[in-house]
Specification:
It is a single chain. By secondary structure, this protein is an all-alpha fold. It has two domains: 58 residues, no CATH class; 47 residues, no CATH class. 77% of the residues lie in helices and 0% in strands. The protein has seven helices and no strands. It is elongated and about 70 Å long.
Length: 112
């Protein structure tokens, strides 16, 4: 192979890797609450084509779950600020809230 062919092969290889991980990249970019599961699906089943499409659809699915849960928590539990922070911390640990959403809710609770 000539030098140009080698370079093209390397570029195509890295481009293929990026395309393969598009579902994981989308999940990370959207701060999806199931990012880890989407990444694992992409890694282990993405090669099947159907697994890749499933991971991509999952990554593009709604992330409004946390937005629906937070108002109901604030409305139904009029407890101590620190109890509320513990509760939203548990939501973050379960993957329902992202780190950014957790910090925003914590700041709201502490400022009220």
């Amino acid at each position: 192979m000539s030098g140009g062919s080698d370079t093209l092969a390397i570029i195509l290889f890295f481009l293929a890797i990026i395309v393969y991980f598009v579902p994981a990249i989308v999940a990370c970019y959207r701060v999806h609450h199931n990012t880890t599961s989407i990444m694992l699906t992409n890694i282990f089943l993405g090669w099947t084509g159907i697994g890749w499409i499933a991971a991509l659809v999952w990554a593009a699915s709604s992330t409004a779950m946390a937005k629906e849960i937070l108002p109901s928590i604030a409305a139904t539990t009029p407890g101590d600020k620190y109890t509320e922070i513990d509760r939203i911390s548990q939501l973050k640990d379960r993957g329902i809230l992202s780190e950014q959403e957790f910090q925003a809710e914590k700041a709201k609770l502490l400022s009220s």
